[in-house]
Amino acid sequence: MQGLVSLKILSLMGNELEYLTSMSDLDKLEHLNLSGNKLTAGFHELAKLKSLLSLNLSNNNFNFTLRKFYSFLLVRISSFFIYLLQFFIICFYLKQM
Question: 29 and 53 in contact (C-beta within 8 Å)?
Answer without folding.
Answer: no
